[in-house]
Write a structure and sequence with these properties.
Bound molecules: 2-keto-D-gluconic acid
CATH architecture of the largest domain: 3-Layer(aba) Sandwich
Number of helices: 12
Number of domains: 2
Distance between the termini: 19 Å
Shape: globular
CATH topology of the largest domain: Rossmann fold
Structural class: alpha/beta
Radius of gyration: 21 Å
Oligomer: single chain
Helix content: 25-40%
C-alpha cells in the first residue's frame, strides 16, 4: 500500500511504516502542500497521513474517493468531512492521548501569563519601557482558591483541572455533554449548567472539539454572562469563540483577560488588536509542540496505518460508521 506523508512529521512513525514494508512518500518540505498539490499527490496513494491544517472537505474527498484510510496527525479532526468520508467508506483515525499533558501545560501557562500580564510586560521591556517602580501599576490577579470552569471535561480538560487544583487549590466546576463522575470524585469537581459555568468561573477554559454545536459558541451574549474579572482560555480550536466578540468583550472590559493558543483564522493577522492588549497572551497553536507529544503522535499515526494494513481493528477510529 502506498502512503502519502503530507508534512515533515517526526521520523519515528515514518520509520515504523517503512519497517512494515509500506511504500512511503514523504513531503519533505516544512511548508505545507497547497490544496492542488495535496489533491494531485493523494490521487497516487492509498493512504493519506494528514494534518488538521489541510481541509479535507467533500470536494477533496470526492476527488480522492479511492482512499483506503486517512490517518490524521492530531486529536481534533474538524478539518475532515467525516460524514462524507463515511459515505465514501473511507475510515479516519486520530491520535488521542498523545498531546494531553502538553496541551494542559499550555492552557495552564496561558492562564498564569494572562493573570500577571506577562506577555505585555515582556513587550514593554523590549520596547525599552521598563519605567520606574509604580506601586499601583502592572497589577495582575492571583489564582489561589479561585474557581476554574472547564468547558469539556475530557482528557485535556481533566489534566488542566488537575494542575489548577494541585497548584492553586482552585475550585473546579465543569460543563460537559455527559457528567464525568470519575473527575468529580478525583477533583471534587461539580457538574454545572452552561449558564452557571459562565456565571461562576474566574477562569473559563475551553477543551471541547469544534462541531456544529460548538462553532462560535463563545459569542458576545456568552461573554456578557461571565464575570468582568474572568479570564477566558482557549487551547482547543479558534472556531469555538467568535473573535470579534472576544475583542469587544476585552476592549469594553466585559471580561478581564484571555489566553489563546488557537485563533480564527490561523495564522492570525499581525495587526489583530488582541496582540496589543495588556491582559492577553497568545501562542501560535503550540499545544502539542513538545518532543514527547509529537513523537507519540508520530507513533500513533503510524500504528493506525499499520493496524489497517494488517486488517486489525482500528483503535483510534473516529468514523465508526465505516
Ligand atoms: C496539532 C492539534 O498541532 O491535535 C490537535 O488537534 O490541534 C495539534 O496537536 C495540529 O492539529 C496539527 O495537525
Amino acid at each position: 500500500m502506498k502512503v502519502l506523508v503530507s508534512l515533515n512529521f517526526p521520523p519515528l512513525g515514518i520509520e515504523m511504516l517503512k519497517q512494515e514494508g509500506l511504500d512511503v512518500t514523504v513531503w519533505k518540505n516544512d511548508i505545507p502542500m497547497t490544496r492542488e498539490e495535496l489533491i494531485q499527490a493523494t490521487k497516487e496513494h492509498d493512504i493519506l497521513l494528514s494534518s488538521s491544517i489541510y481541509t479535507l472537505d467533500a470536494d477533496f474527498l470526492e476527488k480522492n474517493k479511492h482512499l483506503k484510510l486517512i490517518s490524521q496527525f492530531a486529536v481534533g479532526y474538524n478539518n475532515i468531512d467525516i460524514e462524507k468520508a463515511t459515505e465514501l467508506g473511507i475510515p479516519v483515525t486520530n491520535t488521542p492521548n498523545a498531546m494531553t499533558d502538553a496541551t494542559a501545560d499550555i492552557a495552564f501557562a496561558l492562564m498564569l501569563a494572562v493573570s500577571r500580564k506577562m506577555f505585555h510586560m515582556h513587550k514593554t521591556i523590549i520596547s525599552g519601557d521598563w519605567g520606574h517602580f509604580r506601586p499601583q501599576a502592572n497589577l495582575g490577579m492571583e489564582l489561589k482558591g479561585k474557581t476554574v470552569g472547564i468547558f469539556g471535561m475530557g482528557r485535556i480538560g481533566s489534566e488542566f483541572a488537575r494542575r489548577c487544583l494541585g497548584a492553586y487549590n482552585m475550585k473546579v466546576i465543569y460543563h460537559n455533554r455527559r457528567p464525568n463522575t470519575e473527575m468529580e470524585k478525583e477533583l471534587n469537581a461539580s457538574y454545572v449548567s452552561f449558564e452557571e459555568l459562565l456565571k461562576e468561573s474566574d477562569v473559563l477554559s475551553v477543551h471541547a472539539g469544534l462541531s456544529n454545536e460548538t462553532k462560535g459558541l463563545f459569542n458576545a451574549d456568552v461573554f456578557s454572562k461571565m464575570k468582568s474579572s474572568a479570564i477566558f482560555i482557549n487551547t482547543a480550536r479558534g472556531g469555538l469563540h467568535h473573535e470579534k466578540s472576544l475583542i469587544e468583550a476585552l476592549q469594553n472590559k466585559v471580561i478581564w483577560g484571555a489566553g489563546l493558543d488557537v485563533t480564527n483564522p490561523e495564522p492570525m493577522n499581525k495587526d489583530n488588536p488582541l496582540l496589543n492588549m495588556e491582559n492577553v497572551a497568545i501562542t501560535p497553536h503550540i499545544g502539542s509542540a513538545t518532543v514527547e507529544s509529537r513523537n507519540e503522535m508520530s507513533r500513533l499515526v503510524a500504528l493506525n496505518i499499520i493496524q489497517f494494513s494488517r486488517g486489525e481493528p482500528l483503535t483510534n477510529l473516529v468514523s465508526p460508521g465505516v
